[in-house]
Fold this protein.
Amino acid sequence: QKEVEQNSGPLSVPEGAIASLNCTYSDRGSQSFFWYRQYSGKSPELIMSIYSNGDKEDGRFTAQLNKASQYVSLLIRDSQPSDSATYLCAVAPSGGYNKLIFGAGTRLAVHP
Amino acid sequence: SQTIHQWPATLVQPVGSPLSLECTVEGTSNPNLYWYRQAAGRGLQLLFYSVGIGQISSEVPQNLSASRPQDRQFILSSKKLLLSDSGFYLCAWSVPPTEQYFGPGTRLTVT
């Protein structure tokens, strides 16, 4: 069973701080990794994708991938109350890109 | 640009009634299409995916079925709803090997 694990949270951070969200996956052959943001009652929205080891930055967001440790993370710098949402980690398992395996999500709460 | 539509946005149905949810994608050709369900406070459960017209793969045994009558149309159906079918139903599309993009979802309550 290929799995993606996330801490359910809530992760509470003060406004302006760095929020660090973590994800581990079981399929060592996975090649593609994604972070989605889901506001309460809304559908998931893709915010980051990463395919190679290392860091990928996009504005206030940085995705980090370590395939040897089977670990992917999302850093949100200068966190804002509008970042409060559930963040879903998704992994494309080895053997094809037809499916994604989603973690259960980490709820982030940014307080003023 | 690509757009994905789902309807209806919300639905309240009695137990034992039929179900039909529709999803359409604009602005792309031959996408992969997916149906997910998200129970309250839970993660995403992949129900069906399709790589082409008439090609449906089922991920979990249940009383739901899916069809893809046209390239950019994906339909989720049930002949008789169960209470456990309540949830947030999400359609998504992708053009492999890229990311999946979600529609706005249908919130189904079975009473």
